[in-house]
Amino acid sequence: MDANVQVREVIKDRVKTIDLQLQAIQRRLLQSVDDKLAAVRSDLQALAQLVPEHQFYRYTRLYTSLLQTLCFVVAWQTYLASETVVTPEQVAERIGLPVELDHEIAESHIPLENLLHGLVQLPSELMCVRCVNCAAQQDCDRPLRIRAFVQELYSGFQLLNLKNDPLRRHYDVVKYDAKKIEEVVCDIKLRQLSRQS
Amino acid sequence: MAPHHQDHDNDRPSKRAKVMDTTGAAENTMAATTVSSTAALFQLARGHLDAQWNQREAVIKQSREITRESKKLIVMLQRHDPKVAFAESEMATFPAAKAKVLQMLSKLAAQFKSRQEFHRYSSNVKHCIQEFLEAVAFHYFLEFRRMIPFDDARLLLESLGLQLMPQDYIMGISDVSGEVMRFATNAATKGNTQWVEASRTYLQDFYHACLSLDASFNENDMNRKIDTTRESVLKVERLAYDLAIRQSEQKLFRKDLDVVMQESTAQ
């Protein structure tokens, strides 16, 4: 059992370092973060090595929120680059771990829930950072595109049969964010500020 | 529960479509391609999450049943009369009951497609494994008067297709002290010193073993269990003491009685 405790300790340490790096990324997300992400990716590989074989879920609690944040960062990055919803393949490529979709993966991987958690945080981020600021800076087309994007995410989440878990609670927040974005768009349209109205 | 806003949201697609028509065509096509892949992703996610949820429900249900049956095993063991040889007595139904629990555990293990899957549901399954272990360990104590070794327990569980985590082993074993204490109390009321002694030794040894556990063992329940074990140890020590006193009293009493009888018959 001492071995177990040791493994936990090492994992916790690693998780902390990666977390710090992720926080730095989040704060500077407007600039290119590829090099930082590469550092995170190699750290994550090292972490993946630490987990004993076949025991990925035994320690999953230690790094699940880390993976969620990571997915969020990648999703945010993808949005900034191409205004699309990141695909699991892209996530796997950027992070360096496969995403668990329909078949089971024995080695370290990203459970699907973590990807969903990452995605579910996008709308509020978009709302806070982008939508209102864009409107304030007279960039009135952006909110329309943001609205479309968020609707796409939102209708995706609506497909899920969510139970009473953290993902459900985040999803409820998305509802409100979608509504707020709608209001911003309404404001813009009312005043015919957008080129496209 | 708050009313589900589903109906209101379903009105939106039509509104949304109207608004979208007034925007550029380019935006529409781009939206269409990403929407289809996003929708596909979420369809996949739904299937995945639903399957996982269903399996978890099944595991929880089976766990609860196993816990219940294990508790019944323990009650059966408590009723065992220690004076009678273990293989006989009213324990006739015990093997069948135990076999039933073993079978339920195998069935539960069959749910997990791989060793990794077990860990995914380990928190749901933990309790029933501990309860089962308690029954097995108590049985072991009654047969051999000592604690079941970790490897024996682990092999038993692995033969069923499950895995025994050290934490579960220790938590399960800890509950046995309570049962041993209860058993000792029953034995004491029947004047069975042997078993009271055996219980006392077992509990003392076990308590010392508990104290040597690393403090970083991170289950909060464990501290509570150690306290309970200590209570059991104290109770059984007290029992042993009382029995010993009573027995020496009885010896003295009998000696005095003999003397009195002799004196009265002599007269």
Automatic annotation (TrEMBL), chain A:
Keyword list, A-Z: Cytoplasm, DNA-binding, Nucleus, RNA-binding
Subcellular location: Cytoplasm; Nucleus
A GO MF label: single-stranded DNA binding
Keyword Transferase: no
BP GO annotations: RNA metabolic process
GO cellular component: cytoplasm; nucleus
Pfam families, per database record: Translin
Family membership: Belongs to the translin family.
Name listed for the protein in its UniProt record: Translin
TrEMBL record, chain B:
SUPFAM superfamilies tied to this protein: Translin
UniProt entry keywords in alphabetical sequence: Cytoplasm, Nucleus
Keyword Cytoplasm tagged: yes
GO cellular component: cytoplasm; nucleus
Bias (Basic and acidic residues) ranges: 1-14
GO terms for MF: sequence-specific DNA binding
UniProt cross-references to Pfam families, sorted A to Z: Translin
Subcellular compartments: Cytoplasm; Nucleus
Domain of life: Eukaryota
Keyword Metal-binding: no
Region (Disordered) location: 1-20
Principal localisation: cytoplasm
Family, as annotated: Belongs to the translin family.
Protein's name according to its UniProt entry: Translin
Organism encoding this protein: Allomyces macrogynus (strain ATCC 38327)
